[in-house]
Design brief:
Shape: globular
Distance between the termini: 18 Å
Number of helices: 5
Strand content: under 5%
Number of domains: 1
Largest sheet: none
Structural class: mainly alpha
Order of helices and strands: HHHHH
Radius of gyration: 12 Å
Length: 98
C-alpha cells in the first residue's frame, strides 16, 4: 500500500490510537469502529480495496500494526505535531489485527 500522498487527519490518528490502546486516543463512532476493525482483520487483497475508499484509515491502521514507530507517529499526528511521509511497515502475509 503506497502512502506517498496520504495525509492522516488528527481525528483518524486519535481513533486508531484508541483502537490499539495508545495514549491520546479517542473513541470513534460505531461505523468508524467497525471500519477500523475490518481494515485490521482484512487480508491483503481486501485491505487494498478498502484503502482505495478509506486511504487515511488504512494507512493509520497499517502504521499501528506494522510500523515499529507507528504509535508514536500517530500520537504526534493526534497532537498536531506532524504528519508521516513514509511508513516503515513490513506487512506479514495474511494481515490481521493486533
Amino acid at each position: 500500500m503506497s502512502n506517498d500522498s496520504i495525509t492522516i487527519p488528527p481525528e483518524t490518528a486519535r481513533h486508531v490510537l484508541w483502537m490499539y490502546g495508545g495514549d491520546g486516543g479517542a473513541e470513534p463512532g460505531s461505523f468508524t469502529t467497525q471500519l477500523l476493525r475490518l481494515i485490521g482483520y482484512a487480508d491483503h487483497d481486501n485491505k487494498t480495496k478498502l484503502a482505495t475508499l478509506y486511504p487515511a484509515e488504512a494507512q493509520a491502521v497499517e502504521m499501528a500494526q506494522f510500523d515499529p514507530d507507528g504509535m508514536t507517529t500517530l500520537q504526534e499526528i493526534a497532537d498536531g505535531r506532524g504528519f508521516p511521509s513514509t511508513c516503515t511497515c513490513t506487512q506479514p502475509t495474511g494481515g490481521g489485527a493486533a
